[in-house]
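Input structure tokens:
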């Protein structure tokens, strides 16, 4: 099999690399038909319907330089994954492509600038994790159970729950806590059974809370001993996730982000800047988790990713499947990595 391309990788500051190289004309020429049809389909010429322009007419209106560039870009889009695999660099985000030399019947030269995962010198993370004591679970109290019961009464009367510090103008009386009330929330025979289930759920939540607190302490301990520069693209991604979460919360409350910004006298840029400290913290934790999972060769099974992706897609039919699968892969990898640290093996 003939080699279609050659590349050279140069490290740049700020977790970036520059990939320079060339692609043979034979490899690029295969994309001429696709590039021509793509460009012809977007032409606007008087006397012809868009997308139905004769080939000879379209050719006279498409500059050679533009056609060659489109061919080269399409070729490199397909070859790029091969380049990344060959060079074994951990690229994140979208690369910047520049065609530096192009001519018909000659090799195409290019430059790709991409952000990569930073090099992270990990401390003895297993030792640090072992030094973090488990967090004692809080006992379930009658007050905990009663709080949930009161929330269920509000939900049945108002259709939603009010926080302890929230004012409301509802005049509807709260329903009595009877066996019939209990049955309306599930397959409960009576109030006693409902309260027992509430106790189980609260106990599970408290156990998870204790587990999460220890995990946070473990990661804080490891991150504190790890020094590296966060790539700008990673930081921006975390800020955008935080903004998206705020927007989702606002939408559920029946407002738009623009309404919220106007009422609060804020801007998106200002909010993004306010998010920066927390975004840096989240980014640092995720990058350290990534480094540990790579070192420990932790990879979720394809079957696990597929099952969880299908579950989420069923819950959110409009979600992008590729992004959902990537999210699931990250979450499963994080879970396995954190479990490893908890076990301290």
């Amino acid at each position: 099999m003939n080699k279609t391309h050659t590349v050279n990788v140069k490290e740049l500051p700020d977790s970036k690399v520059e990939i320079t190289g060339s692609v043979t004309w034979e490899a690029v020429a295969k994309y001429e038909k696709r590039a021509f049809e793509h460009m012809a389909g977007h032409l606007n010429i008087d006397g012809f319907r868009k997308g139905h322009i004769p080939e000879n007419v379209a050719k006279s209106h498409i500059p050679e330089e533009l056609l060659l560039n489109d061919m080269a870009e399409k070729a490199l889009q397909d070859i790029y994954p091969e380049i990344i695999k060959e060079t074994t660099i951990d690229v994140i985000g979208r690369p910047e492509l520049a065609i530096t030399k192009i001519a018909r019947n000659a090799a195409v030269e290019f430059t790709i600038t991409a952000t990569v995962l930073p090099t992270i010198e990990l401390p003895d993370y297993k030792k640090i994790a072992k030094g973090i004591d488990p967090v004692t679970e809080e006992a379930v109290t009658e007050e905990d159970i009663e709080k949930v019961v009161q929330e269920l009464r509000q939900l049945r009367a108002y259709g939603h729950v009010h926080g302890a510090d929230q004012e409301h103008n509802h005049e509807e009386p709260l329903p009595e806590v009877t066996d019939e009330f209990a049955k309306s929330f599930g397959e409960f025979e009576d109030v006693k059974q409902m309260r027992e289930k509430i106790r189980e759920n609260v106990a599970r939540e408290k156990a998870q809370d204790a587990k999460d607190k220890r995990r946070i302490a473990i990661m804080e301990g490891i991150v504190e001993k790890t020094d590296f520069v966060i790539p700008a693209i990673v930081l921006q991604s975390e800020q955008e996730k935080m903004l998206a979460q705020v927007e989702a919360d606002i939408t559920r409350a029946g407002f738009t982000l623009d309404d919220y910004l106007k009422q609060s006298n804020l801007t998106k840029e200002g909010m993004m800047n306010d998010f920066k400290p927390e975004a840096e913290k989240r980014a640092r934790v995720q990058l350290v988790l990534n480094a540990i999972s790579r070192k420990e060769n932790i990879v979720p099974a394809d079957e696990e990713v597929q099952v969880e992706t299908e579950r989420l897609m069923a819950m959110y039919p409009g979600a992008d499947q590729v992004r959902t699968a990537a999210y699931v892969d990250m979450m499963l990898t994080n879970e396995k990595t954190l479990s490893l640290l908890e076990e301290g093996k």
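The two ends are 46 Å apart (CA to CA). The longest strand covers residues 91-101.
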